User: Fold this.
Amino acid sequence: MRKRTNAMTGTATQLKRMAMGVAVCLATPFILVSCGGGGGGGSSSETNFNIEPLGTQSLSIPEVNDIVARAVQASISRDVQSTIAITDRVGNVLAVYRMTNSSPTVIITSGLSGANGRGLDGFTPVPSELAAIAKAITGAYLSSTGNAFSTRTASQIVQEFFQPGETGQPSGPLYGVQFSQLPCSDLNVWLSQNATIGPKRSPLGLSADPGGFPIYQEGRVVGGIGVIASTDAGTQGVYGLDRDILTNEVDLEEEIAFAALPEAFRAPAQIRANRITANGQTFQFSNTTPAVAGAAALGGNGNFVAVAGYKTAAGVIAGTSYGTSQSGYVATTAPAFNGLDTFTLITNPADNTSVRFPPSAGGNLTQTEVQNILVEGMKIANRARAQIRIPLGAAAQVTVSVVDTTGQVLGLVRSSDAPIFGTDVSVQKARSALTFSSAEALTDFNAIDAGNHAAFANAMNTFFTQTTTALNGSAAYSARAIGNVHRPYFPDGEVGTPTGPLSSPIAQWSPFNVGFQLNIVTNKVLGTLTATTRAANQFSPPAALTCVDDANIPAGRQNRFANGMQIFPGGFPIYKGDALVGAVGVSGDGVDQDDMVGYLGVINGAAAVGSTMRPFPSTLLTANELSNSGEFLKYVQCPQTPFNNSSEQNVCPTP
Assistant:
């Protein structure tokens, strides 16, 4: 709910906010600065931010109760009724509180009339609890000890122009990231799998609706808060995004969520998004820095509630400490990763050796090859100058994953303080590069939902000057290249040019109706939103509980689609000669850094073991050789001078 003051008259107009289910972590080359600006500079205490990412910090039950009570008081003071969600860093829902007269549902809307009723745009009813949880998870998942991003930050980086409203600019650097952490993901887990192990799924993916923030203790991320507000139960809430970031409108949900956090729980001012710039553009953290609210009585103003699939009982629970076995993220103990400061995922909180994705052989990739891709990728990340972290000169923090030709994850490791969202996204990127590069691409794309999305696939298949059969395994596609043809303009951002073949046309486009990426998972996502119960699954769930259309995709290829697709850079197919043998995905830092870690991880990993594997084929086409109207796709783009303490340039060889 946004209250905008008219600059001419000074009158206040209550407006429904636009917002959306999206997420982010920036991924374009960034220049980091230690200056104010961009909103939200505020008076937060200057907590030391340059610290080790691990500690014993976590949210206790009294602390969660206190934050919720302050959100209730902030709502009362602003004459609205709210639904409030609190999570820990790995997505466990610690509390959901519904004020007595709050709206039980929201509508998903961008406010763009041509998109209404398409994709997720215009969908209703969505339980308010699910929208609040998505906001809280977004604040937690996008942040780290080196950067604090809010759902407002997310709204800047997922729209058709960056910055939003600046016509003619390329799309947001993390365009498409909103459709990660999906409720049908096979990578992210349900509450029923384990009470504490993450990363947990989000009901709506990542959110770009202002009103979601990370929660910190002593400079470390310990969780997130999300708020959905309405004037009363009869006025439906709105889940959207900020389409005009230059107006500095005051968003009531954002005010309430920020006011709920005592100074000790607010993100350190030095690492907030408004201290980070991309290509001269300052990011936003919050349009306001309200005073900390008092604590209202929780009894009599509403109730804590259970949420099927996300919180089994209404009562408040304590959060987990990230890096402990209870969180599901622990330090890697395999000797090959010694000294690299890597983490891995586990399945049993009582057993740190229960590694979920240890380096394994698959298809035509050996265990040694997989392990060395991961090792060499992490070596590159540790040398690389981070693009979305403060202080300047900090190393990149990423997740690296490898999949085989079926889409099965063969190995996954991550930097100790990499943002949580990159866990799922790295696998999405690998699977997307694999699937588009495969011989079965067109067949499978045309089969999903009984051919309902064939127009997108057929348009791409015949889009390029060089070939009329682009999706039959004769060309290699990186995640960057896939993104090039999945934008509402081709070339990206150039108004008046044709729509990319995988995108919704601009007249129907919105961040809730982007085209092929969303369309192939829409039925699974909507199925979870309308369900009153949510089935448990295992760490290797059956296809019916994942994002794949299991009725129409053959069993041997269902893993390729099991957590959805991703359409921003950081994923490459892996070849031996012209034989497709797998794929690599990287996520967590700038998109050029993600590209470099994955690309050089394969090349250097091959050199370390004498393998012929490469992130491109020997003689087949690569996407940078494909064009439409003289405009070529891009396959890989690495930073110009990427490494700390080195002047080395042009580090990525041409495919």
In short: The mean pLDDT is 90. The chain is about 20% helix and 15% strand. The CA atoms of residues 441 and 471 lie 5 Å apart. The radius of gyration is 23 Å.
